[in-house]
Amino acid sequence: MNRFLVLVLGLLAVSAARKRYEPNWESLDKRPLPDWYDKQKIGIFIHWGVFSVPSFSSEWFWNCWNSGRKSCVDFIKNNYRPDWTYADFARDFTAEFYNATEWAKLFEDAGAHYIVFVSKHHEGFCNWPSKYSFNWNSMAVGPKRDLVGELADAVRKHTKMHFGVYHSMFEWYNPLYEQDKANGFRTRDFVTTKTLPELYELVNKYKPDVIWSDGEWQASSEYWKSPEFIAWLYNDSPVRDTVVVNDRWGNETRCKHGGFWDCSDAYDPGKLQGHKWENNFPLDKSAWGYRRTMNLDSIHSIESVLTLLARTISCGGNFLVNVGPTKSGKIIPIFEERLRQFGSWMKVNGEAVYETFPWKHQNDSLNKDAWYVARKMDQQTNVYVFILKWPANGKLILGSLSYTSRMSISMLGYKGSKTFSWTRNPTGGVAVNMPALSPTEIPCKWAWVLKLSNIEDDKFGGIKRISNE
């Protein structure tokens, strides 16, 4: 038998053995979540588009203006000519300082293992030269560049991160969509000529490992033909083995169907979830896209970011941090500072983030500023506790720990000789005596992680990683 025939037979055998998913939620929801997503935990979200030109209010500026909201109407009235249209902003979406390699390296330095880039928001402007967007895309007007392609290439050439895309299912003022809506979504002209062709084009051209869908809420997944697209994605697409999707595929799907769930923006349930989920949140508390009107109080502090991280991964979630670049393609210094602060912290404490899974406790029973995760290393399960506030008297109370003399305690990043001791806490749990560390000895400025070993008992062998199987 020649080599070619052997290869063909082998491929046929693999194809035959591969599980096929039917275009319905019962079948699609049985697909296991690819391991990489749960293990790698940290992502960067990037909201960039024509909305970055007015950079006023939020990425919803067009809707704000068109719906007659006074702040947005006055902004246009006071700064632009009377016949100004939203489309006029596109020519000023210049991206002259956009350097995809610099972005990719910054995001990796921040500790991210995947990115999600907005390929198209609700305004309908495509950040790639889509065949289905006519002149409303980044090659036809504005940058005159393939913004998605440049970042996909940079991520793959210069980092080890996974590349992903956000895509809005609907467009605010597309006439085809408005007609389908007027027809009670009994017609699908917009879906068959715009939404689905764009999704297939994105996957075939850029091979993203994340498809982050949005803009689905006015119609059902049946209208959007979401199950048919996802079945193709899982069965026959070029990323069928690695791709993950979220839960925004129809007005009945959030927190019910899809790969990982985000349920709502900045989703933070505060307790363990039975399904893999993600906390996506913007560094700017009031917008995802860049706003020229934001001030320092609008930006999450690094302490706030690390608190959200601890809450999220303790409860089984991934952490997707959003930045909004300027129209010129710059990530402003305050966003860069937060990302680099986060990255410096991750270099010390990444062991307690990547490849971890929920422990039997999440938030400590007595200490609201302590959160737990677990990780199996060297044939044993270690538990990590995030300490968000250093105890004022040097005594850390952990009510969810059972006292054992076999336990060992260390602090990630601390290289000195001072030791941690512990005693039974009179009201339950353990009292940890934190050593007095000088500013030069303490391993990081915010949020410290204790590593606990030899604490298992017969009742605990670790909670399995969430796989959605």
Automatic annotation (TrEMBL):
InterPro entries: FUC_metazoa-typ, Fucosidase_C, GH, Glyco_hydro_29, Glyco_hydro_29_N, Glyco_hydro_b. Residues 362-452 form the Alpha-L-fucosidase C-terminal domain. Pfam families: Alpha_L_fucos, Fucosidase_C. Residues 15-351 form the Glycoside hydrolase family 29 N-terminal domain. Its EC number is 3.2.1.51. GO terms for biological process: fucose metabolic process; glycoside catabolic process. Keywords: Glycoprotein, Glycosidase, Hydrolase, Signal. Residues 1-17 form the signal peptide. It comes from the Eukaryota. One of its GO terms (molecular function) is alpha-L-fucosidase activity. One of its GO terms (cellular component) is lysosome. The keyword Zinc does not apply. Belongs to the glycosyl hydrolase 29 family. Alpha-L-fucosidase is responsible for hydrolyzing the alpha-1,6-linked fucose joined to the reducing-end N-acetylglucosamine of the carbohydrate moieties of glycoproteins. This is alpha-L-fucosidase.
